[in-house]
Amino acid sequence: xxxxxxxxxGLSLVIxxxxxxxxxxVFAEGKRSLQKAREGLEQRLAGVSGFAGIAHSEEEGAIIxxxxxxxxxxxxxxxxxxxAVRKQVTGRFNALGTQVIEAIAPSLPNQVGRxxxxxxxxxxxxxxxxxxxxxxxxxxxxxxxxxxxxxxxVIAMNPNTAQFLKLGTPVIQPGSIDGGTLANxxxxxxxxxxxxxxxxxxxxxxxxxxxxxxxxxxxxxxxxSQFNEAGNYQVSGTTTVIKDDLVRKSGxxxxxxxxxxxxxxxxxxxxxxxxxxxxYTDQIxxxxxxxxxxxxxxxxDKGGKFVGLAFAGSNTQAVVCKASRLIPALGIYVGx
Length: 336
Known about the structure:
Blueprint: H1 3-45, E1 51-57, E2 62-67, E3 79-80, E4 83-89, E5 93-95, E6 121-123, E7 125-129, E8 137-139, E9 141-142, E10 147-150, H2 152-155, E11 157-158, E12 163-164, E13 170-172, E14 185-192, E15 205-206, E16 211-215, E17 221-226, E18 233-234, E19 246-251, E20 255-271, E21 277-287, E22 299-302, E23 305-313, E24 317-322, H3 323-330
Parallel strand pairs: 2-4, 5-20, 6-17, 15-21
Antiparallel strand pairs: 1-2, 1-20, 3-4, 5-23, 7-8, 7-13, 9-10, 10-16, 11-12, 13-14, 14-16, 17-18, 19-20, 19-22, 20-21, 21-24, 22-23, 23-24
């Protein structure tokens, strides 16, 4: 090969390399700018009446603002820092273990229902703490290190006051609203992720609503198994999701349901009582219908791998805290 051709090829490679490395920061800066704009608008909207949460979409190049009602739209700009703002009326997000509606009936004759005593313990069945309050949520999963996994507000909190319970508080299955008593004790509260509540416009970040209980000696359990009227299924290992992924859950109230992921980077205000709320960041949003009251604590999976726990929702959207946030905090195993 001639010296001229070698020189030409060398110069071409240099030019390609310069274009490649110079283009990376431009694209990265674009993503950082959308994130930065979202954070700026988030700070501006904190405390604004009707603000319910916020997310951003790289695909749309837009900021998404969740609102409690139509009236709140006028308090949000149509664009911010050069990016479009899409306003979505979701309604208020509530923790979904405090008010419980009737569970679905078993779909097969003579089959044990989700709100009855179920042994061995599996995910998707009625559960609560035993504290003299009538309520229930969902047992999310029996972990592979033999712990009961659910939401903190299902087994570690008084739903009337949003006050945390003492470690060692009995956990019963089924939950008290489904007739569970101390005779139905299956374990004891072992650990929870503390929730930092907000007040007077102060938005303190939270990442997961989750807790675990030990399982009493002699109580049969099945790690990873999820209650399904058509035949139980198994959840093992973890995975992440992206927008439009199909996810599934098994819950005390609505059984096994599926729907699509709407966002994976949302921040939302979640109400635990009429005036006690917490701000959650880095949350997954799933389109409704997916969960209802009493489904709090449900294990959400994609293709049999653990995604996170459902814990709150509105009429249009459900909120799921991520496996990556709750597993290290609780020190549990969701696979063998």
